[in-house]
Amino acid sequence: xxxxxxxxxxxxxxxxxxxxxxxxxxxxxxxxxxxxxxxxxxxxxxxxxxxxxxxxxxxxxxxxxxxxxxxxxxxxxxxxxxxxxxxxxxxxxxxxxxxxxxxxxxxxxxxxxxxxxxxxxxxxxxxxxxxxxxxxxxxxxxxxxxxxxxxxxxxxxxxxxxxxxxxxxxxxxxxxxxxxxxxxxxxxxxxxxxxxxxxxxxxxxxxxxxxxxxxxxxxxxxxxxxxxxxxxxxxxxxxxxxxxxxxxxxxxxxxxxxxxxxxxxxxxxxxxxxxxxxxxxxxxx
Amino acid sequence: xxxxxxxxxxxxxxxxxxxxxxxxxxxxxxxxxxxxxxxxxxxxxxxxxxxxxxxxxxxxxxxxxxxxxxxxxxxxxxxxxxxxxxxxxxxxxxxxxxxxxxxxxxxxxxxxxxxxxxxxxxxxxxxxxxxxxxxxxxxxxxxxxxxxxxxxxxxxxxxxxxxxxxxxxxxxxxxxxxxxxxxxxxxxxxxxxxxxxxxxxxxxxxxxxxxxxxxxxxxxxxxxxxxxxxxxxxxxxxxxxxxxxxxxxxxxxxxxxxxxxxxxxxxxxxxxxxxxxxxxxxxxx
Lengths: 285, 285
Description:
D-amino Acid Aminotransferase, Chain A, domain 1; 29% strand; D-amino Acid Aminotransferase, Chain A, domain 2; six-stranded antiparallel beta sheet; 25% helix; homodimer
């Protein structure tokens, strides 16, 4: 999906307004860091607690010391403040390299980067999407799976597969054939009354909206399962929708030329999700 | 291998001395770029033509417009100049993002970054290395295989597996079990008179020294083959050595506790390579 929200209006590094990061930052050198994309409404940051929880879990897995929680919270709150909706991109890298080479010396201090972009939140009942099947297969590495890390060349190459602006997204499998996600969205299938989304133990990003929609589905008493899926499951699905922190749930109305109905499960979830997206809260109930 | 050559002495962005890169550079945001590590001797840049050839091939595969060759050459020559050996790290990114999201708009202009580090070239007959078998398995993606791109989190995590300074490197396989490389070196095996190095069609970096050693081996009339290899081939090898643009050929004297002889093929190749490393030339004969 393209969220062309233009260029950043303001940017901060380690709490100070700044346009640039040190060349020897390991974020640039190796993609050695993580990021979060936060929807900011006049009422505050949407699902801020979930985003910071995922960031903390990612830092732990990559053994990046987590910046102090109150510092992050204050900087995000300050950058998010405004009358107009905005997207905040938060990047946390391992910090500036203290020596050449991949080895972590233990003397690095994490770098906190914030970029604020103008944003028009999409209408909740936006029309369904046309989606293609992508050729690129994501590499599998359980140690990186689920993380929203800075190594995103696969997504860049996947997004380069098409130029037609009528196509919103492409769905991709992993090297061994497991269904993973879109280039910047998670995917859900409805099949035989069950709601299914791919397990992300080999690759993919565990999206915040994926988590929120899962909680909403359980709250509605739906038969919701996270499980291994393949392309055959996509072809057999009765409904398909995509999730993303900025857009919520978007129905797929056409997949690789096949028309799909905007079905009842998708509509039910969209209706239940809509009030949670309208006003900022730390986490869904 | 650890090449702790300290911090950069000087740095340039797009030909001007600068310490930082724009926050919206896609190199930082997505690791959307490539790099080269150049050995600079008082006589010039070693194998500069091979490095620039690999960079050009990488840019073509990632569809990053290649900076003009004469501009790159001039900037490298200027940064490399000096009485003392140095390492130059050249980074070329797709440039600053012109919109939010993964999509390439076509309006990006590549960013050229140069970092100059002090360097003590290793003695040619340096003692053999102690090497371990790494646990991390590299993800497989033919579209990224061979490229020296900026998505290096796997190497960072691989290098975090050990802290013992007596261990110089770890060898890693891919997710499907193919032997790939060290964390920052390519690997060669000698077995039954043949010299073997892994095919890098699924993952790994096609190192410049790997290329040079291959040419030297062919020149010596050795039975040299690039082929799929597995861990069993490593265990059955009579000689093992690692290559890297800065260190040339390093014999492995111990692999995961097994002592290895510093054998005749490794010694023959080291002797043939040594004169090529001493003085800078554009490419090996």
